[in-house]
Amino acid sequence: MIDATYALAACIFFGAALYSSVGHAGASAYIALMALFGLPAQVMRPTALVLNVIVATFTSARFVHAGLFRWRTLWPFLIGAIPMAFVGGGIILPTHFYRPLVGVVLWLSAARLLWPKPLGTADDVKDPPIIAAIAAGAGIGLLSGLTGTGGGIFLSPLLLFLGWATPRAASGIAAVFILVNSISGLLGNLASLQQLPETLPLFAGAALAGALVGTTLGIRLPSTMIVRALALVLIMAGAKMIGVY
Predict the structure, then answer these.
(1) What is the pTM of this model?
(2) Which of 24, 60, 79, 133 holds its CA 20 to 30 A away from the CA of 183?
């Protein structure tokens, strides 16, 4: 049991390192890992949410400190996302319908990121129209609530596809977006904190160490490497939604 606990902590470390390198906190990875290691269902979601807040806080601080963040780009998305995340959390759709649909969307996004044609340059970046960003944020918030994720897996590709951020800036914007959404989700599920495992400090330490490694890479890696890492994250998240693992 002790060996399995430390093995899970090691996996959480690597998951946090990969996800945080592109500004994400890794909730979907933590849930998948805990399921693979046989943790009870009532423990997985609150644990993943707490780890999400820890990683997103650290990741946000590092990307903001590095100057890889623009408030003007983010705030319209938050206006739409925060209330709709609560709405999405209260809607129960047939699992066989929405999870495969979201998974396919994530895979298509990954395919576009890996496409040889470049997404654009720093000179092409422009601020998103406020109304369009609020509407997009509402849709992302709804999907975030439905899928139990922080929403970064939907926001990052959108920012890159529409030329609203560079790869590094998209990572910083997504990090703060995920932090706000994760805190909202945690506040809406405070009762679930009674199910947190005794091993949480170990898992939290592993996630924080992974975030230290991942954000260091994300800040320093070339933009092309960041885009490829994001594509890998989307492929993994899509596989989880579809039920591959």
Answers:
(1) 0.83
(2) 133
Say which residues have a Cβ less than 8 Å from residue 173's Cβ, sequence separation at least 6: 23, 69, 70, 73, 74, 155, 159, 165
Q: Dump the DSSP string for 64-122.
A: HHTT---HHHHHHHHHHHHHHHHHHHT----HHHHHHHHHHHHHHHHHHHHSSS----G
C-alpha distance from residue 26 to each of 23, 51, 79, 132, 205 (Å)? 9, 8, 23, 27, 14
Q: 129, 164 in Cβ contact below 8 A?
A: no
Distance CA 219, CA 240 (A): 27
Q: 243 CB contacts (<8 Å, ≥6 apart)?
A: 99, 100, 103
CA dist., res. 195 & res. 138, Å (int): 30
Question: Tokens 């938050």 sit at which residue?
Answer: 78
50-75 pLDDT tens trace: 899 999 999 999 999 999 899 999 99
Tokens representing residue 188 in the block = 């809406």
Average pLDDT value for the chain: 84
Q: CA Rg, the chain, in Å?
A: 17
What tokens appear for 189 in the block?
């599920």
Q: Residue 74's CB: how many other CB atoms inside 10 A?
A: 24
> Hey, what amino acid is at 229?
A
